[in-house]
Amino acid sequence: MKITIDVKLPEKSSILVKVGEKVDQKDPIASVESHSAPIIIQLAKMLKVNPQKIIKYMTVSSDSPIKKDDVIALKKGMLSTITVKSPADGFIEDIDLEEGLIVFRENKHKEKKIYPPVSGVIKEIKHKHIELECEGEEYSGEKSRGERMAGRLKFIGGEQVGVLEVTEDIHKAIILAAEITPAALSKIDALGGAGIIATKIPDEISLDYVLVSKSTFDKMSSLSGREAVADPPLKRIFILS
Question: Which domain of life does the UniProt lineage start with (predicted)?
């Protein structure tokens, strides 16, 4: 059957696909530019002046373009001169006269690509969302916590899964088990498991999870090995054909 998976996009994303286009997990569907982290320059300490007086020694103004190694502050004395230079190309974003510092922002933009969690066909493109149509099955959860996880579904049988039942081949897999001990959960986390689908879990758990009913669990247990997407915020699980 056809299922639709909603892919959320960050603000100001650039769409890289069209409706009807086939994509897989290696194909970027959107991109977004992110600015570099601000650089805090402790100007008052560097100039050895009162915080309120740093503006007196600054040689550039806010928002003015600045090149790397441009002088941004200069204090001349009888015996010495203190020079503060720009750490990179950029601009002064803010001047804090209480703390005596300036906030410098580089002119460096990083492009982040957004990839689909699974292969499929672009069904619809909306504001902040892309709908991806796939062949598979959809199930509802009863309780959940965490963010969306995608990976191979790995079923581990038994009424309660312990440490010995957790094998090394679970990296990036979504673990499907009826009940899991705290020690087994710690091992799954250490081995890089993507998350948990279960009928019962301990109260304290660091992994993202979706709890399902016994009847839903029984249906899903025969689907081990398929690609899956579990969406805790929506309490939904998608198993691809």
Answer: Bacteria
122: left (phi over 0), alpha (psi -120 to 50) or beta: beta
Task: Report residue 57's pLDDT band, with 50, 70 and 90 as the boundaries.
Answer: very high
**pTM: predicted TM-score of the whole model, two decimal places:** 0.68
Q: Beta partners for 5?
A: 132
Counting Cβ atoms within 10 Å, is residue 28 exposed (0-12), middle (13-18) or buried (19+)? middle
> Which element (helix H / strand E) includes 214?
helix 214-220
Per-residue model confidence as pLDDT tens digits over 131-188: 999 999 999 999 999 999 999 999 999 999 999 999 999 999 999 999 999 999 999 9
Pair 218, 150 in one domain: yes
Burial environment of residue 152 by CB neighbours within 10 A (0 to 12, 13 to 18, 19 or more) = middle
Pick from 67, 103, 71, 96: nearest CA to 84: 71
Asked whether residue 121 falls in the same domain as residue 193, the answer is no
Q: Return the bridge partners of 197, or none.
A: 176, 210
Q: Among residues 70, 112, 110, which one has the least CA distance to residue 90?
A: 70
**178/235 same-domain check:** yes
Domain of 15 in residue numbering reads as 1-33+112-135
Distance CA 226, CA 120 (A): 14
191, 168 Cβ separation under 8 angstroms: yes
- Nearest-angstrom CA–CA distance, 202 and 145: 13
What residues have CB less than 8 Å from 183, skipping those under 6 apart? 162, 163
